[in-house]
Fold these 2 entries.
Entry 1:
Amino acid sequence: MDSSPIVDRRSTGTLGCAALHRPINHQGIGAYRSQDHARIEGTRSPAAPWYKTPVTVQYHLKLSPGDVAPYVLLPGDPGRVPLVASMWDESHEVASNREYVTFTGTYRGVPISCTSTGIGCPSTAIAMEELARVGATTFVRIGTCGTFQDRVHTGDIAIFDSAARYDGASRLYAPIEFPAVADHEVVSAAIAAGRELGLSFHVGTTRTADSFYALHPRPGSSFGGYWQSSWREHFEDVKRMNVVAAEMEASVIFVLARIWGLRAGGVAIVLDNVLKVSGDSGDFDPQQQFDHGGDEIERLARMGSEIVRILAERDAAA
Amino acid sequence: MSLQYHVRVSPGDVAPYVLLPGDPGRVEVVASLWDETRHVASNREYVTFTGTYRGVPISCTSTGIGSPSTAIALEELARVGATTFVRIGTSGSLQDRVGVGDLAILDSAIRADGASTLYAPPEFPAVAHHEVVDAAIEATTGLGVRHHVGTTFSTDLFYVPEAGSAFGGYEQSAWRERYADVARANALAAEMEAGVLMVLSRIWGLRGGAIALVADVAEERDESGAFDPQASFDVSEESIERLARVGCETVRILGERDRAREGA
């Protein structure tokens, strides 16, 4: 079997990307996109063979080329997309289908989009695939998380530089040995944004899992007291590995961006300590226990938008 | 904790910043770039020098080849006070855009090794510390060296069971497309130590990173398909010195930033 994808990467330069994209993009966004493609090393050009079939509207996200900026914020909850967009200079709803809501606009002069992924890696992988096809090159997840570490407090921000891959979707793309790693430029921009906004933040690894109610150390988290003995020390083991956060989407975002030569990162607001959330009873009731007021989500949205601004300004200077 | 069993170092013998080549013969080359230097220990494949580079305390310890001996070196160095590990070694390129003589700054690793999986399950990421990545980029940029940032394939095998590489042509079908698949997943380089270094640094809350000189192109074989590293690897003295210089500069940048932060 030949190794055509490797050869393709060499034979399709950034020129092809610019030539293909510029005419069909909205002005402004197109300029950013081709510039962005040109400076990310190893970026797969959309001129590669699988892209040759004309791409029109995407099946799930209902987006077409030109509908999204190169920089996309990714919350899980479709209800949060308008809230994020409300912080921008101007914005409009581009599409809404299933759990996928997309707004595009401008934040402090930078073209920006926000698309909800739904909960979990399968729906997130679909969002990434379709966003990349219409020209997104930088993905920043903004979400909520739990923490494993006592030094991290409720209301703090976790900046993810990597993820432990306890998910299913990312394994179907790359073997489990492959690292889920954020792009260092996104991590650096997130640190700068956190400092600038005066937020208490931590940089580290997140544990991305395909389950919300499973894996807790005692019966009481899953319905009807269902439990498995292998769960008993899972949280403690993850804590011992110095993992900062628990959430459900970062790993597949990092793996897909890395294998495609695109950029990704993630930030999340800490809602609870997963080791303490189900006290002695083992009962886990997020509706009662989680604390997310509107201003916490607003802070997260502000940080995500600032990360995009910093990245865009650095990209323009590079 | 006093004298360490394999590396033969005691607390006070090493600086917080340690450069880690594989080859014990290269430690002295690295140390020759420093302001002042002393030989601390030699035992098995572990040779350690400690000194000062442009005002920053620095050590260099060889790890030997592969993740098992590297894990031992890291365990014992951490016990005597090392906190920042920067691997400097050679690698094969997996991408056409990465040429022989270029440097690969490794921000993450595919964990095709044994030792790291005994510490943390394979789901756990092998990731470099972002401060080390940033310092390495600044060091290579400052020295005008062509570099790439990306993922490495850290494997426990040098002679792999694909056509013409292992002795006697021994072959396993699982390896036939292994390198091609890894290249398709956008990995930059292949080497044998970065994965365990990054996993151990991360689980201990220490800092790790790796810089690799590209010595050959992993996919390139001669017409017979034979793999003869003695004939095909290009590891000149000049290129090793450049790698060592980038490693020392990375430590200097980290040391100066750490000092500024502590002073602030």
Entry 2:
Amino acid sequence: MKNRLYFIISLFGFLTVGCSDDILEKEPLAAISESNAYLTELDAQRALTAAYQPLTGNDFSNQGEWGGRGYIHWIFGNVASDDTEKGGESAADQLFAQQIQVFSIATDNDATTSGWETEYIGIHRANMVLDNIGDIPMDEALKARYMAEVKFLRAWYYSNLVRTFGGVPLVLNSELEAHDLSRSSKSDVYDQIIKDLLEASEILPDENEQAPEDHGRATKGAALAYLGKAYLYMEDFVNAEKYFGDVINSGVYSLDPNYYQMFTREGENSSEHIFQVQHVNDQGSFPVVNWLGVTMGSRAREGWGFNLPTQDFVDAFEDGDPRLWHTVYKNGDVMPDGEIANVGNSFTGYLNKKYYVPDFERVGGTLSAGRDDIYMRLGKVLLWYAEAANEIGKTEAALDALNAVRARARNGNANVLSDITVTDKGELRKIIWHEQRVEFGQEFERFFELVRQKRAGEVLRAYAETYDTSKGSGFVDGVNNVLPIPQSEINLSDGKIEQNPGY
Amino acid sequence: MNKILIALFFYVPLLISPQEVLFSATNPSLKMVIYEIESQTDLKFAYGNEIDIVRKLDGKYDFKKDDIKKVIKELSNKTPYTFTIVRNNLTITPDSSPIVRPKKKINPEQPFQMQVEGNVTDENGMPLPSVTVQERGTNNGVLTDFDGNYNIEVSSAESVLVFSYIGMITTERTVEENTTIDVQMEEDSQALDEVILVGYGTQRRSDITGAIGMVDSEEFEDEPVTQIGEALQGKISGLQVTANSGAPGSGLMVRVRGVGTLNNADPLYVVDGNPNVDPIDLVPDQVKSIQVLKSASAAAIYGAQGANGVILITTKQGKAGKSTLNINYSSGLQEIQRYVPMANATQYAILYNEGLAAAGEDPLYSDPESLGEGTFWQKEITQVAPLTNIMVSASGGSETSRYFFSAGYQDQDGVIKGSSFNRSSLRINSSHDITPVLRVGQNLSANISNRENPIGLASALTANPEIPAKFPDGSWGYSPTSLNSQNPAASIYYNHNDTKRSVVNGNVYTDITILKDFEFRSQYNFNIGFVENIDFNPAYEISPQSFNINASLQENFNKFKETSWANTLNYTKTAGKHNFDALAGVTIEESDTKFIRAYGAGLPENATISEELRYLDLSTQSASIAGNAGSYGILSYLGRLNYNFDNSYFATINFRADGSSKFGTNNKWGYFPSFSLGWKISQENFLENVGWMDNLMLRGGWGQLGNQSSLPNYAFANLVTPNINYAFGTDQEVYRGQIAAGMANPDLKWETSKEVNIGFDFRGFDGKVTATVDWYNRETSDMLLRVPIAAYTGIQDFPYVNGGNVTNKGFEVLVGFEDATSGGLQYGISANMARNENEVTALSNSGSAIFQDIGFSGQGSVTQVGSPIASFWGWETDGIFQTAAEVDAHAFQTSGTAPGDFRYKDLNDDGVIDADDQAIIGNPWPEIVYGANAFLNYKNFGFSVNLQGVYGNEIYNETKFRLEGASFYGYTQNAFDNRWTGPETPNATVPRMNTGDRNNNFRSSDFYLEDGSYLRIKNIQLSYKIPERVFSDLATVSVYGSVQNAYTFTKYPFLDPELGAASVDKLDGTLLIGVDNITYPVPRIFTLGVKVGL
């Protein structure tokens, strides 16, 4: 009798366990499946927001958890050029940046690798929006605008890639099986950039039509300005002049009378800004912090002392150009917050004032303020317009644009920065190039400008000789115009992606 | 006191059938006779310590398949012993004393007052002859007769009778007023020490056909180990145990037969049948024995979780009989084994100036000599640290209920200041026989531990020696001029990172004997815990450069609950010479985890000193929260069949089917079969006359296993990462974005290992020599791999694929020798070694390699087809350029290459040193892992030594990046002594100091590699058992002293060649093997202890 009881108990145990097949089906906790991620208008907005986010990657310290490590504009645009020394503790501090400024660049250089990765993360997210929001039932005009915004973003990411690496693989959809690519030609990449920007410009609103809560999103003006820039880099001066002209003539933007202020938090909504990456440090749950204030800040002030403007750069300013002391500062300067400047260990004696974080901007005591990065502004557009116009013989228009910038810079002081009247094309070109150097100095363009203007080797080697330094000395023409493709990418493609010559 | 010492070679289930013996020998030892009879029959011998089994028997013995009864009759006649068969026992007693001891009064004044008689039976009611019945504390004793009856005179009603019999639990009864005391004795499974766990059951050691390693608690019980893994180090062949860190309370890296995966390669730990216990929650003092299932044929019963090997741990259980109480107290001191010789302040300044000059910068120090010796930071942050362990355990029980209880406290400070660990532990194991066929029981453990997480030693190596730890005024030292102004002593002072871990685990079970041969077991296991990590960053000011004005607090809260339920049915049957043992079972396992993090800043300023202010309610800004959860479930069906014929031919078949929620619908189920065969060759006729061979078992097997443990819970689903934020609007409102950052793979399935194992077990020369040898070849296929895919896809989290094959092949040898002299000296030595070769044989990743960055030096680790997992990768140095002419004559390196820089080999001879000149430069995996243990016992003294080592691996000393050249961080003495300073230093091994380093001397190269071989004297121990007369009957007391990590023989110049996984939390940890970036060193520990038994 008892045996039978035990038998039943045992059988019961077996059966109970055997029936619990549902333990093999576990729904993901605390996570949304991709299949449920594109259902509503809010989902579309979130997907778009994610496509913007890699823009904020701008520094090695900005190890954005979900945005890649960042495309480090200040290393490529500034440090690689004659305007900026790397700085930091010593040459070994952020060795990858040192490699770039002496042009002895390993193929696994961190800056090139993370720049490549980050821009492609942005491109993928843009492709995800284009591929997935089409079927979402929502306001069609808004949907069209979202699509236009991500096309702008995709073009923006590609334009960083193409000027850094030359031709790169063109990834235009999120279908991952299709990714067995090799490098497209540089002109194919530019063609795609232009196509995206044109399509975006047809739909995007002008900035003055934008609702205040949309400030910071891509606009028609931004798309046109980057179209002009793309043509400029392709040396298609006719189209460059056309699109830069469209921006200038749109009447949407005007030069900010207060040159310095437009780089501060206070100036974040300046009338001059065309495209700027939004950072905010609300010290709340989801800050989008900008670390450049710390990176470029003085050692004497909790900064790390990178990005040191060179003497050569300082000397490039005309006597009395007020922009010089808006762009750099040195020991003893009285800063906007009333502090007496101490540049710490800067061996050039200068630091970048455009990223100086005054005490009243500090958040929680840190220099990681929520300062925006200004990538496109009317000052740049005017000088690029001037360059393109001069090249195609529209000398008067070129001079008008150039002098508009100088007039704003002189800020009413008639004794400095007098109007340019030179009409010789070659001479005017040099003057415009010089104006570009000082007007948007330390604004992440110089190295690429030198390459575009086909004088990088000449300028950088001259710098090395003048200052008897290794910086710039290693620049080899025909090699260092572009940087190495990340070695990991070459390895992973099994040789389909070929390294740039010389690396 | 216990007059009968038990030696038992084989235990054979009850079997009543005609038995024949075939045996021929002249003057054999009694032991040999015993062995032959035991081998050929199902009889087991029982004899007391008065029988000298090594003694030669006179005469010739020739049995030709004679019936056992005839054999024992002849033996009884020809020898001075009497052989008696009762049940399946063969007892040996001296001819002279059928009833042994004279009735001698313990107290002559007190006459015997009572006569007690009774009957002794076994569990089944069968009479038990030859049971010793003894009056406790006296020499007064008798044996039961053939019908189990006895008759004894005792001195009083308070007398206690002790019934003892071989293989049975000793039972005690107080006489009181009874004149008849009948006793039913119970079989003692503990005494059958040759029966070992094989997963969901037991098997006789000599019948095992897979490869299993064993360690008994006696082999580590007095070592100062806080983690069970340490107890295994150097003791089992094929097991590589490495401390991840010497910090108190840290875990270990345990690898069984190399690694077959790039994923989690940790073995499965099963504690008393509970498969969810983290080894960090085990208290070594509570462990009875450890068995490591190494071969796939042995581990296959654990199917999808067994691919990395299975470690079965049995905790101590209660025994019926007299209750005992044991107290073990030990206390010790720990010290750092050695320091890295560093440049002093003067040398530091010289080196830094040189480096700046080479980079074209101005020197920083105008007068290096004035700095003198400076601070030796390693001494500043290390200490001689105390260690205390107290453990109280009690055990006992009646015939039907048994218990084991243990409570303990361990307290250990770290040799690096600011680190410590303490643990309070409790365990209660008990079992109760409710009816003869129904037993219930439970094993229950509760632990609470606190750990102060240390700041690593690395900061002491990179700290500037010109800075004092403190200025004369008591404030923290810093340098107003140098950029290297970190003060590690201050960092330690302000570091408040504590982890509290509270875990309850255990199981409840019931055993039911359904019918005669069927036993059903239902066991429910649980493991529940909380881990709280509190990281408080106070407001402080060390120097004008180094301060924090905003105190912040982060609390991480992890909760886990893992349960499993196993129902198994066992069937045992013997029919003639056919012996069957079959098992079938169903198990389910579920795991739930939850994580919450909260962060806040702006805590009150005096929270720096007041612990009671470190709560998030007091934070005033920057509140941030996060949380997530995860779960998985596994459903399994398992079965096993053991069969042997005539105890000569053995076969085992295992089968397990596992379904897991971690896999997509396409591949939910995995099937894991195995089989193994054994041939007890020593049983064969042709070996019968080989007298020195006691036992030789040849065995071989094949098995298939799975590994799912490293896979995240939902890799089959493509999940969206939330909170990818960006700000829009003139007011810069933060918008939340989301994106699927990874790629799902619904086709994911089990990672599978197939292994062939061949080996043998040998025992011979009268049991003095033992040897076990195994050879294996394990192939892992469908390896779960996070395949790096081209970055241009924009995929951030690499997808998992079943994408690679790895082969591990090798052999393991364990040899032992034990003997005793007639003078009472017992001694023994055993040695083990294992050789393993690891090779990646396929990667689906279009065949390309998987690279891993090593610190700052770049991609120094490669996993590629044809080489071991995580091989070292880089350039090969070819000396240092002495002159500019040499630079020009060599392949182009960089435009900045100059004399004093490394010359790299142009492997492809293309005249340029570039990425194509990299190669595999080293192997992090030892060729041989070995250990040796020796003991010597003489009278009350015991002495033992354990050695442990590895041979043939390389260490990638990544710290050289910061300590031997390029940077402003610290410099080693080696850099000062051996750097290149000009053509007059042609033998320099360290390149010129150059903070610019345009040649990139510190790229990944063989410059970083060191010979990783070492031999460590792991433990030396001396113990002394205080003679019983000192404490009379009150207690047994022994004292012992030991030195752990006494000495290490190695060429490795840094802190410690024992390097575990560099990062155990991250996935890439498995690819950072043998990389030294200064982990917390394992300390040398001196302990003294005392053990008291009541």
